[in-house]
Each structure stands twice: as C-alpha cells, then as structure tokens.
C-alpha cells in the first residue's frame, strides 16, 4: 500500500491510534489487496469490521465511494451483538446469521491482484548463505544460536527484506519470523530448558526484526507508516467495543442460535435459571442440568455482556446470577477461550509455582522485598508452605515492582461480603479478597468487581480456584488489565494460562506510574511482554542470570 492510501485513511479517521492504524494497513494490504488510493473505493463493511467500529467502517465507505453514487453505505444484517434490547427480542434467526453478503470488491478487483500483493513475502527466501559460520554450525548441530550470531542474522534478514519494502510492517516481520522458526525450531524458537515451546515460539524474533526495521528507519519520515495523530481535544476517546474486548477469545460473539432454540426459549431459560438461583443459591451451579442450560444460553449471555453501551456488573448479575459462581465463570471462560482454566491453573500453580520460588531462592542478588517474602515463606508452618500458588504470585509481583494491593485485598478471616463492602474502599477493577491474618495464611477467598463482592468461594475450594475465577472475569466481562498489575496479569495469561495471541494486549493504558520513581511515564507494552518471555526462561533455567537469557 502506498503512502497516499495511508494518508487518506488518516484524514478520514484522525482518531485512529498508531497500533490500530498499523494493523488496519497490514490487513488491507495483505489480505484485502489494497495497493493504491483508487482501490479504497471498493472496500466493503466486511473488509474492515474486525479492525474498526461500525461507524468508522461507514466513514471509510462514505469517504471513498465513487462520485455520483447515491447508494447509502449499509452494514451487514443485525446480529445478536448489535441488538439493543437486553431481552434478545431482536435476535436473528440462524438463516439470517448465515446469509452471505455480496462482495463488490471481489468482483471489481482481479483475482491475481491479491497474489501480486503477497508475491514478495511468499517468494522471499532467507539468505542463509550470508549467515556467520558459527551460526550455520549451531544450525547443523541443532543447538540454540548464540546471542551475537542471532543479532547478526536479524541484521542480514532485515537488510534482505528492505530490498523489497523499505518499512516492513509487523505482520510481515511475523511472517518472516515464522518462516525462520519453522525452518530451524531448535535453534531459534523460544523454549524452556525442558524443550517446551513458549507461546507462539517466535515472539522474541518478531520483536527483534521489527525493532531493527524501526532502527534503520529512525531518520526517515517518508518510510514510516506511523504518523503523528491530530485530534481537536488532544486525545482519543476509546470505542465502547474494540478489538481488545475480544483479545484472546475464540468464541467472543456467536451469531448462530443453538439448534431448536429461539429468542423466546432462551429468555425462558434465563428466567428459570434465575428462579433456581433464588431458590437454591450458588450450589445450583454444580448441577449437571443447570450447567447444560448455562451452556445453551451462552449466546444470550454474550449478547447481554457485549451490548453497547456496556451494562454494569450489577445489571449482568441481576439477570445471570449463576454466572457469578466459580463454576459459572470458569465454564463461561472455557467456552469463550477454549481453555479449562480451573484444571490448568490447578496443575501449573503447584508445579511451576515451585520453580518460581526455587528461582528466586537461588538468585545471588535479591530485592529487599523479595528477601523478606522468602524469609516469611521459609519461616511459615508446613500448612502455609504448601500455598505455593500464593507465594509464587506474590514473588512475581515483587519482581515486577507491582503492589500487592493491585490484585489482592486482605480482610479479616471472619469478614462477610456485606462487611467488606461497607468497611473497605474496594477498587472498580477486579480484586481477590484474601480472608486471613496475612496474604500467605489466607484460607478463604472472594472476588470483587466495580466495588462489589460478586463471587464468594466455598471453604473447600483452593487459591487456584479463586485465581481462576478472578482471572476469568477480565475475559468474561471485557475488562482491561489494571495498569498497576499489568505485568503480573500478562505473565499469568501467557505463562500459566497459556493464552498467547500473536498481537495485541489486554491493557490499553498509554501511561503508567513508574515502579521506581512514582512519576507518570509512558508505558511500553512490548517490553512488558518481553519481561514475560524473560521470566519464563529464567524460571525454567534457574542457573541463568538476567543478562544471559536468550531473549533480546
């Protein structure tokens, strides 16, 4: 896509931030096939709906439609996500949801056009013949590349890429990184000492390639895709629903009703579920028949949660009280992301929790806070020492210089949900209430959102159950990570829960409070992710220091 196209898009949507602009430009260039300004006239709603809001899509279509065309721009048939009524009365039938839309762009643009756009990256070959001899030797022995050799490879590859495109975007860097990792996985992929692949396996390589590209283009304004934003009030208002809401999800907004169901039958099931909860209480969530009914009404739950403007947590709880139980949250999370978070966290907190503690114990230089916490763990009773999950999370927060209060609230062991709401100033973002004398000795837990206790865990449940319910709320209710705990939460997401999208983040904050000085500083989202990869390798290789970690 030429620079004129990008300038025109910025003119129509000046509020679009750099990350969203880059993602949109990459999608239009490599997937849709936009090369020059005249191709923008053939864009349809479906070409942009995953990257822009409905209004922004209409703005683009209206701005570039051919002159003399009086046909108004229209969106696809309304779906459950767009229905304004919480009663789901306007939900479409399955036939409407499956109805294909017309494709003006496909008819107007030759089929070979998209192939031309992708030609250079599809035909691109890694210049292995130019690589250092020591790197080729590591490849032949299937050993991990040394840091100097890997940096030399990145420089050679980027130079070769820039012969085709002066400023390859992140999507292109990802394609090349994937190519390298698939060719020689044992040499270049991100892996633990046990050989377990971390995330997508080549995230650190994507960052290296893109960083090198930006470094070479640092003095050239003509080669940059990202341009300064201009807005009337100096800031951009976040859309009610954006790509971040569906971050990490595989079933964020289904649009086909279950077989044999209608809007009326789903509403009737919702009323029955609410009546059961009012009669029996939270334990009804454990009944197989209730769980099955919650699964059937999943599409209705997502319709309510994803509606615009977003409903409050109290409004959702009033309509779906069984959703606010450990079983309800974790089951919804499993359908939403494809991950059984309860079983996964139960296993990894015990196994990887010990590795995390062992890593910090073996470090020669420890932060004072980490030293005090390790002493508290070692001096504790055997029952407390079994709480490896709590200890591991607390150590991670100390390592990332994040306050315990950004995730946990300590309360008296005998406190009730009513007393907690009345006596404690509860933040809006999710928290885990730890009932006990200290965080390490807590034995009962609650989850809060928007200043209210929304989930009370029974006494027989464990900390991993509490952490599962707490973490699920961010995805179930489209909540961003709170910036003061964003590093720890992203570590939990990627290393423990193993949700590893190739792009994006669950924290959109552009600024944050410096953990060292307390000043307001620009937040670097990519470095936060690098910290996750770094810690992942460190936890797996306790003998290595920060400076010897194979992440650049």
Helix content: 40-55%
Number of strands: 6
Poorly predicted segments? 70-117, 224-240, 524-530, 542-552
Rg, please?
Answer: 26 Å
Q: How many H/I helices?
A: 25
The N- and C-terminal alpha carbons lie at a distance of: 30 Å
Let me know the largest β-sheet. Answer: 4 strands, mixed
Structural class: mainly alpha
Instruction: Tell the overall outline.
Output: globular
Q: How much β-strand is present in the residues?
A: under 5%
| Overall mean confidence score, pLDDT | 78
How are strands sequenced across the largest beta sheet? 1-2-3-4
Q: Keywords for this structure?
A:
mainly alpha, 6 strands, disordered C terminus, 552 residues
Description:
The strands form two sheets. A four-stranded mixed sheet has the order 1-2-3-4, sandwiched between helices. A two-stranded antiparallel sheet has the order 5-6. By secondary structure, the chain is mainly α. The chain has helices at 3-12, 18-32, 45-48, 54-64, 94-98, 104-108, 111-122, 133-140, 147-161, 170-183, 185-188, 203-216, 263-280, 288-296, 298-305, 313-319, 326-337, 341-362, 368-379, 382-385, 388-399, 417-423, 463-476, 486-497, 525-540, and strands spanning 408-411, 431-435, 444-449, 452-456, 511-513, 520-522.
């Amino acid at each position: 896509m030429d620079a004129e196209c990008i300038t025109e898009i910025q003119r129509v949507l000046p509020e679009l931030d750099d990350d969203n602009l880059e993602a949109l430009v990459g999608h239009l260039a490599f997937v849709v096939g936009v090369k020059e300004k005249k191709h923008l006239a053939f864009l349809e709603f479906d070409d942009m709906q995953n990257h822009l809001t409905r209004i922004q899509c209409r703005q683009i279509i209206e701005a570039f439609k051919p002159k003399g065309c009086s046909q108004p721009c229209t969106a696809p048939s309304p779906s459950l996500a767009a229905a304004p009524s919480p009663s789901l009365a306007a939900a479409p039938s399955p036939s409407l949801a499956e109805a294909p839309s017309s494709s003006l762009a496909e008819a107007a643009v030759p089929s070979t056009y998209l192939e031309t756009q992708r030609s250079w990256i599809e035909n691109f070959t890694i210049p292995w013949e130019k690589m250092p001899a020591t790197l080729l030797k590591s490849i032949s022995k299937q050993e991990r590349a040394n840091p100097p050799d890997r940096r030399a490879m990145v420089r050679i590859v980027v130079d070769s890429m820039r012969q085709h495109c002066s400023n390859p975007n992140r999507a292109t860097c990802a394609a090349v990184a994937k190519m390298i990792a698939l060719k020689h996985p044992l040499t270049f992929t991100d892996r633990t000492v046990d050989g377990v692949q971390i995330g997508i396996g080549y995230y650190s390589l994507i960052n290296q390639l893109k960083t090198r590209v930006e470094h070479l283009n640092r003095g050239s304004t003509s080669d940059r895709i990202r341009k300064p934003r201009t807005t009337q009030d100096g800031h951009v208002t976040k859309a009610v629903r954006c790509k971040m809401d569906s971050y990490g999800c595989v079933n964020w907004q289904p649009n086909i009703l279950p077989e044999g169901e209608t809007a009326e039958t789903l509403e009737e099931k919702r009323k029955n579920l609410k009546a059961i909860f009012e009669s029996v209480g939270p334990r009804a969530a454990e009944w197989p028949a209730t769980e099955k009914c919650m699964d059937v009404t999943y599409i209705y739950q997502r319709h309510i949660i994803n509606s615009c403007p977003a409903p409050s947590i109290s409004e959702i709880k009033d309509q779906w009280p069984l959703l606010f139980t450990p079983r309800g949250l974790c089951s919804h999370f499993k359908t939403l992301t494809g991950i059984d978070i309860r079983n996964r966290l139960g296993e990894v907190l015990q196994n990887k929790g010990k590795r995390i503690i062992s890593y910090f114990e073996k470090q020669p230089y420890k932060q004072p806070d980490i030293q005090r916490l390790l002493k508290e763990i070692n001096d504790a009773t055997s029952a407390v020492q079994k709480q490896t999950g709590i200890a591991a999370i607390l150590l991670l927060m100390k390592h990332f210089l994040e306050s315990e209060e950004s995730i946990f609230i300590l309360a008296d062991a005998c406190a009730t949900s009513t007393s907690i709401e009345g006596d404690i100033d509860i933040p809006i973002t999710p928290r885990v209430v730890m009932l006990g004398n200290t965080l390490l000795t807590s034995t009962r837990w609650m989850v809060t959102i928007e200043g209210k206790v929304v989930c009370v865990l029974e006494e027989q449940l464990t900390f991993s159950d509490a952490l599962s319910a707490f973490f699920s709320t961010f995805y179930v209710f489209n909540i961003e990570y709170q910036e003061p705990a964003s590093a720890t939460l992203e570590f939990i997401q990627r290393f423990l829960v193993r949700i590893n999208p190739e792009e994006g983040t669950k924290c959109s904050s552009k600024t944050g409070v410096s953990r060292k000085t307390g000043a307001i500083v620009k937040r670097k989202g990519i470095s936060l992710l690098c910290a996750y990869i770094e810690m992942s390798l460190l936890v797996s290789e306790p003998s290595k220091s920060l400076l010897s970690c194979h992440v650049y």
